[in-house]
Specification:
The chain contains 16 helices and 8 strands. It is mainly alpha-helical and 383 residues long. The strands form 3 sheets. The chain has a 3-stranded antiparallel β-sheet, with helices on one face. Helix 9 runs antiparallel to helix 11 and helix 9 packs across helix 13. The model has no long low-confidence stretch (mean pLDDT 83).
């Protein structure tokens, strides 16, 4: 652990001390004698710690140990669920990873009472990747700060600190936050009408159908991966689900969302091309109604990592430059295609959103103006 205090002795001045719990400030010990200075510092430290409600003063490391683990030492997770805020295990694992990789190395040995907003702000703005020290994305930095905010807010709730200094640090205005969609030309190359060409690009019918459903519905990867034949409605040329696949365990979850926000089900409409491929897939593999439609080698459910690797290979055959895009970009392509062309209530239903989400809308100004042309006559008549 770092020292609880340190000294400096400038020419012509008494020995000064800076305490870990009051960083950046120097106090005079009133002496030039090192032994007397240590004694003064020890007495001052004891006096300060006694004044803090006579409670144990934790280092940040002591307080935050296993904060996001299943042990839930501060009952933070339990309290979230009591408020109907449910998150996947991945949410907690990712925050635990941010804590260990970025926050503890910076603040672990500080007394939790010593951490202030200036320290956090300086650290936050200079954050780099833990191993390579390359620049971190703005969104990644913000997630790390949000993780710290959660921990410090719990310390404030327990009256260990008077306020949450991490809340006083502004998040970064994220640049290039929008995930780029696939263009119409990209989609034409990715999903040719000729079946032989389609199967050549995607390698087999399983992958072709998996990505066709994603194209048609805007479903999230885990939601497509959890589909069974019983989810398909041929009469209505659509699909319905309330389940998804956990990307870590490959197990089925009986919910589609990571929290209580949004709809608890997903519906989608399927093109005739997709319906045709679905029928053939089910017939060829003789898939029972309650079995997963999509399985990779070994019988495992599809997870995003394996799907994105397959997407990369398929796009090489389709001669489409991914340019950093992933399968999730198909969800953005879906909303962009429908935004302004269907009633917003229908779009929200298909996206399973309760409100308009601008980050999914990639229409150009020209697209929006074209869609607004029906209003032009009304505007003309007002003149």
């Amino acid at each position: 652990m770092k020292s609880k205090y340190r000294f400096r002795h400038q020419k012509g001045r008494y020995i000064q001390v800076s305490f870990a719990h009051i960083p950046g400030k120097w106090a005079s010990t009133g002496t030039h004698n090192q032994t007397e200075a240590v004694l003064w510092a020890e007495n001052k430290l004891e006096e300060d710690l006694k004044g803090m409600n006579n409670k144990k003063i934790y280092t940040f490391r002591e307080f935050s140990e296993n904060f996001f683990s299943t042990e839930d030492p501060h009952n933070w997770r339990k309290r979230q669920e009591s408020r109907n805020h449910y998150y996947e295990d991945s949410f907690y694992l990712q925050h635990e990873s941010r804590l260990k990789m970025y926050i503890l190395p910076a603040f672990g040995d500080y007394l939790i009472t010593a951490i202030n907003d200036v320290m956090i702000d300086d650290w936050f703005l200079d954050l780099t990747k833990a191993k390579t020290h390359k620049k971190l994305a703005d969104g990644t930095k913000n997630k790390i700060l949000k993780c710290l905010r959660i921990i410090m807010e719990e310390a404030r709730r327990q009256h260990l600190i008077d306020r949450n200094p991490a809340k006083d640090v502004l998040l970064i205005n994220e640049r290039n936050k929008k995930r780029e969609p696939f263009t119409d030309i990209d989609l034409f190359k990715m999903f040719p009408k000729e079946e032989n060409d389609l199967l050549y690009i995607w390698g087999n019918r399983t992958w072709a159908t998996y990505f066709l459903i994603m194209r048609d519905t805007g479903f999230r990867p885990g939601e497509v991966a959890a589909l069974t034949p019983s989810n398909i409605s041929y009469d209505h040329q659509g699909v319905y689900t309330e389940r998804s696949i956990d990307y870590r365990t490959r197990e089925i979850k009986e919910r589609i969302k990571t929290s209580n926000k949004g709809f608890q089900y997903k519906v989608g409409l399927l093109t005739k091309q997709t319906i045709t491929q679905l029928r053939k897939l089910i017939d060829e593999k003789n898939i029972p109604d309650d079995n997963l439609l999509f399985r990779v080698k070994g019988g495992n459910a599809i997870i995003p990592d394996s799907a994105n690797k397959h997407l990369k290979l398929s796009m090489e055959r389709a001669e489409v430059d991914l340019a950093g895009r992933t399968q999730y970009s198909l969800r953005h392509s879906f909303e962009t295609a429908l935004a302004g062309n269907v009633d917003q209530k229908i779009l929200l239903e298909l996206m399973a959103h309760t409100n308009y989400r601008p980050e999914y809308d990639h229409r150009s100004p020209e697209d929006i103006l074209r869609q607004l042309q029906p209003a032009l006559e009304v505007i003309e008549n007002r003149s």
